[in-house]
Amino acid sequence: MKKTISSISAVVTLATLFMLPMEAGAKEMTGEEVTFGRKLGNCLACHMIPGGNLPGNVGPPLLAMKARFPDKAVLRAQIWDATVKNPQTIMPPFGKHQALTEKQIDQITDFIYTK
Predict the structure, then answer these.
(1) How many CB atoms lie within 10 A of CB 13?
(2) Domain 2-113 = CATH 2.40.50.140
(3) Is residue 99 within 8 Å of residue 19, measured between CB atoms?
(4) Using CA atoms, how far apart are residues 13 and 114, in angstroms rounded to an integer?
(5) Tens-digit pLDDT profile for residues 10-58
(6) DSSP letter for each residue of 30-72
(7) Quick one: pLDDT at residue 16?
(8) Is the dihedral of CA 33, 37, 42, 44 positive or negative?
């Protein structure tokens, strides 16, 4: 029970951070910035990604993504809503909950796919 409450608390905290609006007139971010940025993708909070600093270890390392996901659309679908394949995942459904835009999900997918 304690682990469930802790997991729910972590997901709520992360979801709150992901939903912070971008400032009007802000420069467009690169895929790396969206992926590594602590206010949007924040993938480093849970995953080790080559080139990223202070990675988490809750999720799997994002390495050899082309080998793990030969079909890039499957990787994008995982980022969009990981609960489709694993209803028990703690990965937020970024697309389904509109925490990230379609373009931001594409940027993350493209960047992660190169790792």
Answers:
(1) 11
(2) no
(3) yes
(4) 29
(5) 555 555 555 555 455 568 899 999 999 988 889 999 999 999 999 999 9
(6) PHHHHHH-TTTT-GGGT---TT-SS--SSSPP--SHHHH-SSH
(7) 52
(8) positive
**Residue 86 per-residue DSSP state:** -
Residue type for position 65: M
- 80 DSSP 8-state letter: H
Whole-number Å distance between alpha carbons of 57 and 40: 18
- Rounded distance, CA 54 to CA 111, Å? 18
Structure token digits, residue 67? 């080998």
Q: Which amino acid is at 56?
A: G
Mean predicted lDDT score pLDDT of the chain: 85
Q: Where are the domains of the chain?
A: 2-113
